[in-house]
Amino acid sequence: MRTKITQILGIQHPVFQGGMAWIADANLAAAVSEAGGLGLISSINGGVEAVRREIRKARELTQKPFGVNIMLAAPDAAEIADLVVEEGIGIVTTGAGSPAPYMEKWKAAGIKVIPVVASVAYALKMQELGATAVIAEGAESGGHVGDTHTLALLPQIIDAVQIPVLAAGGVFDGRAAAAMFIMGAAGVQVGTRFLLARECRVHPVYKERLIKASDIGTMVTGKSLGDAVRALKTPFTKKFAAMEADPAVSADEVRAFGTGSLRKAVFDGNLAEGSFLAGEAAGLAKREESAQEIVNDIISGAEALLKTAPDLIYGE
Amino acid sequence: MRTKITQILGIQHPVFQGGMAWIADANLAAAVSEAGGLGLISSINGGVEAVRREIRKARELTQKPFGVNIMLAAPDAAEIADLVVEEGIGIVTTGAGSPAPYMEKWKAAGIKVIPVVASVAYALKMQELGATAVIAEGAESGGHVGDTHTLALLPQIIDAVQIPVLAAGGVFDGRAAAAMFIMGAAGVQVGTRFLLARECRVHPVYKERLIKASDIGTMVTGKSLGDAVRALKTPFTKKFAAMEADPAVSADEVRAFGTGSLRKAVFDGNLAEGSFLAGEAAGLAKREESAQEIVNDIISGAEALLKTAPDLIYGE
After folding, report:
1. Please, what are the domains in chain B?
2. pLDDT higher than 70, residue A82
3. What average pLDDT does chain B have?
4. Quick one: pLDDT at residue A316?
5. Does this complex have an ipTM over 0.90?
6. Which residues are bridge partners to A314 per DSSP?
7. Which of A82, A146, B75, B205 has the smallest count of CB within 10 Å of its CB?
8. For residue B172, which residues of chain A lie inside 8 Å, CB to CB?
């Protein structure tokens, strides 16, 4: 499948793998890029030198383009911003903050910058800064979420900007991908489904819980802290929500309870203290698969639907 | 456009108008049905006899099929359940409760029952009860909402049931409609956009506020009461949310503040005390139009996208 974004980035399929903190490493990113999508290494991977090692490892695993997702709110964001230049990274996606301080440097280095945005206002700001494209992320997605959901958000951002718009949040298989393409998306970003990739290092308990999740298996916590996050419903998220609702518990206590919880999910599969970030489409999760199988299923599913779409008009 | 649902109901276009309380009257429903969609009269319209009058008035305004949406949690639901049989209504949609007590009677009267559902479990229950179809309503929609959003909810419900599934929540124009059809929906239900119909009686301030709304212009309140509702952000919703968050304010006081608020929005355009129910797609609202223009725009937009969808594969 060819779109504006495959042309600009020189990739085969318009499928990005979400740059998930502590999860998106060289193995996963390289496997997705090898499958023809765009793999992304997260900047939250144990510090600047660890990210450098992941970048170099990914280069050994694939000749194809991959990128780095930079969490701009992180304390080492400025160092990571330099690292991607030093390491000759060609594609950067950004989240949780503004890339403004780094845009000039990155553009001088030829880096294509594709911010994740959750609102029209932010998409416009990113276009003005010179972003190559934006990823409109609906609040169905796992992890940090905004207020508006993909089906309503995507067309509003497409109407507002001139640069290509990718869609994220709720995209699990070829059906949602076809839906996004027919609405005008230049690509899709997929997070939750890649948690199930064989090349994804999350603890087996994480994968099991995703496969068992129902359509109402996730919840958003942290709104009272100004830091809304979607994760699987677990003893941890339920306790977190109860603490948030309890006027006797301070915001600092709630924050302290959450600190390190993602790592406890990813590495230990700890249901009592771990935050198993996941999107609403986790209910569609069925099995572990290779990254190649996931990319193929999404793209071949979407293409089959797009090909036969005209038949729907006089369908039955 | 022909789908399973147009065939079953004998309607021209697979577009339902949401049966919005205090809003969906004979004028609106008849105008939507005349335009080839399915108009629906709300059972919350001022009592059983008022609903009877609306039904009879709609019959004078159109020969085409229309239906009644029954809010099952309402105190007069049992009387409305009899009314639709007495008045020879052919199509009933239901919300906010289980239609189980009435299914036998309705089926004996030849009524096709299409419940609005917000989860897979509820969709399965409705199929078991003999529903003709279900409307999978994502929490992007205005009014009472569940937890899961359309892009993630629709495929999970389609995978779970054998009856036709319509999609609601976030469907404003032909883009979202095409997206829902390509994902397998047999139809779409549209609420917010029909608030802008010339035939819709909501106060001019309601329509103005919809047209001014941005992509982040709605919010959900009432979660703490077990009664989550999406509406435009106004002085009323902000105060409601603040009362909910305040441990010094009892749930009863919050509920009392909300009582009658929808009518104050619909009839008085009262921003301080009115609840302007609206979905996330309100940000796409641009102008008042006739119901005919709205239905035509949604369907012609969707058909044009479905027709050219194969070109997307080798698009750029």
Report:
1. 8-201+286-300 (3.20.20.70), 204-281 (no CATH)
2. yes
3. 96
4. 55
5. yes
6. B2
7. B75
8. 152, 155
Chain B residues with beta carbon closer than 8 angstroms to that of A314: 1-2
What percentage of chain A reaches a pLDDT higher than 90? 96
Residue of B151, B219, B310 with shortest CB distance to A176: B151
What's the pTM?
A: 0.96
Q: Which residues pair with A188 in a beta bridge?
A: A15, A167
B269 CB contacts (<8 Å, ≥6 apart)?
A: B203, B204, B205, B206
**Alpha-carbon gap, residue B39 to A118, rounded angstroms:** 34
* Whole-angstrom distance, CA of residue B4 vs CA of residue A110: 51
**Interface contact A172-B152, CB threshold 8 A:** yes
Tell me how crowded residue A150 is: count the other CB atoms within 10 A of its CB. 35
Judged by CB atoms closer than 8 Å, whether chains meet at A312 and B119 is answered as no
Give whole-number Cα distances, B19 to A314, B59, B116, B199, B232, in Å.
27, 17, 10, 14, 18
Residue with tokens 């709300």: B42
Shortest distance, CA A55 to any CA of chain B (angstroms) = 30
- What's the whole-number mean pLDDT along residues B86-110? 96
Q: Does A215 sit within 8 Å of B152, measured CB to CB?
A: yes
Burial of A178 (0-12, 13-18, 19+ CB in 10 A): buried
User: Tokens 């335009």 label which residue?
Assistant: B35
pLDDT in tens, B239-272: 999 999 898 999 999 999 999 999 999 999 999 9
Q: Give me the pLDDT at residue B316, please.
A: 55
Distances, alpha carbon A180 to alpha carbons A75, A184, A309, B125, B241, in Å: 34, 6, 14, 30, 33
Token output for A99: 């890339």
Neighbours of B311 (CB within 10 A): 9
Residue A65 pLDDT more than 70? yes
What type of residue sits at position B175? R
In what helix (H) or strand (E) does residue B167 lie, and over which residues does it extend?
A: strand B165-168
Q: Which of residues 251-270 of A touch B (CB under 8 A)?
A: none
Could you report the per-residue pLDDT of B102-146, keeping only the tens digit for each?
A: 999 999 999 999 999 999 999 999 999 999 999 999 999 999 999
